[in-house]
Amino acid sequence: MIQTIALSLLTGLMGINALPHLIKGILGEEFPTVLGNSPLANALVGVTGILLAALFAFWADMPSHPWTAAVSAAIGAYVMAAFHSLRGAFWLNTATGRANPSVSASQGTPGDQHG
């Protein structure tokens, strides 16, 4: 059951983390990632994240513990959604000394509070 919890949590984390990278990459927009901010890097990171999430889900043996797997995956997804909604990728780039991508006026600036 520990394997199911850990891998389901990673499924949720990786699956949700892949989305902004894939979307920004496909749209040709920059977004912070450890491989650079370019759209191509983000598209590749997004696809890789989806593939990893699928592998984690497969290895998690979810059918043996469906409720445990669902709750663990949901927790991982909520954590990563909160990270990205709080501009965590931009903060992480700043904290590690990497350049952040330029942000258009429609996107606001990193750290803006939109209410």
- The strand count comes to 0
Number of domains: 1
How many distinct helices? 4
| Mean pLDDT level | 90
Care to describe what's here?
The longest helix is centred in the N-terminal third of the chain and has 25 residues, at 2-26. The protein has helices at residues 2-26, 39-59, 66-85, 88-95. It is elongated. The model has no long low-confidence stretch (mean pLDDT 90). It has one domain (2-95). It is mainly alpha-helical and 115 residues long. α1 (2-26) packs antiparallel against α2 (39-59) and α1 runs parallel beside α3.
Set down the secondary structure blueprint:
Blueprint: H1 2-26, H2 39-59, H3 66-85, H4 88-95
Produce a short descriptive summary.
This protein is an all-alpha fold. The protein has one domain (2-95). The protein has helices spanning 2-26, 39-59, 66-85, 88-95.
Keywords:
0% strand, 4 helices, mainly alpha, 115 residues
